[in-house]
Amino acid sequence: MFLTLQSYDAFIRDVLQVAQLRRSAYVCCANAHMAVEAVRDPAFARSVNSATWVTGDGVPLLWALRALYKVRQERITGLDVLPTLLYEAARMGLPVFFYGSTPSILKRCSAFCAEHHPTLQVAGLISPPFQPLTSGEEAHIVDAIVSSGAGLVFVALGCPKQEKWMASVSGRIPAVLLGIGGALPVLVGEQRRAPNWMQRAGLEWLFRFVQEPRRLFGRYVTTNFWFICHFFRQLYSHYMHP
């Protein structure tokens, strides 16, 4: 996995520029879960590494980058990028599209945007079915996004589904697709975000786990274990075979 090395402000500026030009691009916000999935699934790794930007979302990933390569990278998370880009899109008159999540969350998202960003052009909201889409259904969704004129498309399908979807359709959509995972429920107040000290300490995952223990227990136990294993294996290889 190859992270994009730039500041938060530079990243936002680049995304907005590409979105204004209506060029096809997509963003993966990488964390420990994504890194482990990329090791396990080469096809998924190709989807991530083909992204226009791969940002450092998870603090443990940034710690690993520093330990292995002495690189200090600013954290760029979907939770932060979403509200920033909504504000900028409203200011610039750039239409946005929401794809993913549930109908109830999208309804609250629409109300949130109307209240907090009244000038924002919400070009569309689609909550797809949970089962895999047929080629016809996918083509219909792609056509809807393209015809909406959106410059930014926020994709909330969860990892690894959203990264695979963005990689497969990006070239057909003249917009920037951004995989934002579970950022929408936090944006609309359905879930709370971890306090700043937990974010800095790399414990945001723990805060999320406390809110959704049944859904996240298996994933976090497995992911964290394998991330640590892969990190120390790479650290050993890095220093033994520089």
From TrEMBL:
Top-rank taxon: Bacteria
Keywords for the protein's UniProt record, in alphabetical order: Glycosyltransferase, Transferase
Protein's UniProt keywords contain Transferase: yes
NCBIfam families per record: wecG_tagA_cpsF (TIGR00696)
Name the UniProt record assigns to this protein: N-acetylglucosaminyldiphosphoundecaprenol N-acetyl-beta-D-mannosaminyltransferase
